[in-house]
Design a protein that fits this description.
The chain is α/β, with parallel strands linked by helices and about 260 residues long. The chain folds into 2 domains: about 70 residues, Hypothetical PUA domain-like, domain 1 (Ribosomal Protein L25, Chain P, Beta Barrel); about 160 residues, Alpha/beta knot. The protein is about 30% helix and about 25% strand. The protein is built from 7 helices and 16 strands. Strands 6, 7, 8, 9, 10, 11, 14 and 15 form an 8-stranded parallel β-sheet that branches. It has a 6-stranded mixed β-sheet with strand order 2-5-4-3-1-16. The chain has a two-stranded antiparallel ribbon with strand order 12-13. Helix 2 crosses helix 3 and helix 2 packs parallel to helix 7.
Length: about 260
């Protein structure tokens, strides 16, 4: 028996069988006005902690509704602990990068201002909304944290001990990313990593010098071609997932329990 699903939504509320949660104003508008949800329609919900759940719409008014959770569809599972620090790009390119990095499975997004960064303003709330929508659409069980923007100095000063910072190097001076990742894997898995993607104009020489002096920084190569910043970021994430991440797992298109009818 298949069940038609109206939408898949993130909620920060605790989840369990019999629990009723209240969608945000925007989510209620989407369900009731865009998707034309009615009483009894099914919605998938997740919170990044308790797995994924099947819920049923309970219409309260024309502008608000509640979701009654019926049963768990998937338990919460560990996900790759991969951070992406990036110099903000032109608006549409930054939006694209955040969306696709979320789809590829990063756990934290950190906007970083560098000497050659072309933009001076970043709206973290907007990026968080883009990331949440991407997580809802791609069936992942969590939403990446979007950090407040930092300067490069602040980033490297506060970088956590034990987490490697990989910097794609277009000059050809870095080791192959694949080889760096393979040597980071042991019986316990892979050590925590993060990527730092520079601005469209590249890092300043002084910034590269400062990075080279840090023991947790490694320059890595992404092949023989010069890549745009957003391309480099997504290529690096994809390589990480293929070598050391969760790309060994099969996708879940249709588990036989429900038919996903999202558009």
């Amino acid at each position: 028996m298949s069940i038609k699903i109206k939408a898949r939504l993130f909620s920060s509320a605790d989840m369990g069988t019999g629990v009723t949660i209240t969608p945000s104003t925007d989510q209620a508008h989407y369900l009731l006005k865009v998707m034309r949800a009615q009483n009894g329609d099914h919605v998938i919900v997740f919170n990044g902690r308790d797995g994924e759940w099947l819920s049923v719409v309970q219409t309260i008014s024309k502008k608000a509704c509640a979701l009654e959770i019926k049963e768990q569809l998937r338990p919460q599972i560990p996900e790759p602990d991969l951070w992406l620090a990036f110099a903000p790009l032109k608006k549409s390119n930054t939006d694209f990068l955040v969306e696709k990095a979320t789809e590829l499975g990063v756990s934290r997004l950190i906007p970083v201002f560098t000497e050659n960064t072309n933009t001076t303003r970043v709206k973290s709330e907007r990026l968080a909304a883009i990331s949440m929508e991407a997580a809802e659409q791609c069936d992942r069980l969590s939403v990446p944290e979007v950090a407040e923007p930092l300067s490069l100095t602040e980033l490297i000063t506060d970088w956590p001990k034990g987490r490697s910072l990989l910097v794609p190097d277009e000059t050809g001076g870095g080791r192959s990313l694949k080889s760096v990742l393979e040597t980071s894997i042991d019986d316990a898995g892979i050590t925590p990593h993060g990527f730092l993607i520079g601005p469209e104009g590249g890092f300043a020489a002084s910034e590269l010098d400062a990075l080279d002096k840090l023991p947790f920084v490694n320059r890595v190569g992404l092949g023989p071609r010069i890549l745009r910043a957003e391309t480099a970021a997504l290529a690096a994430i994809a390589c990480f997932q293929a070598v050391a991440g969760d790309w060994q797992q099969a996708p879940r298109f249709n588990n036989g329990y429900f038919f996903n009818a999202r558009k």
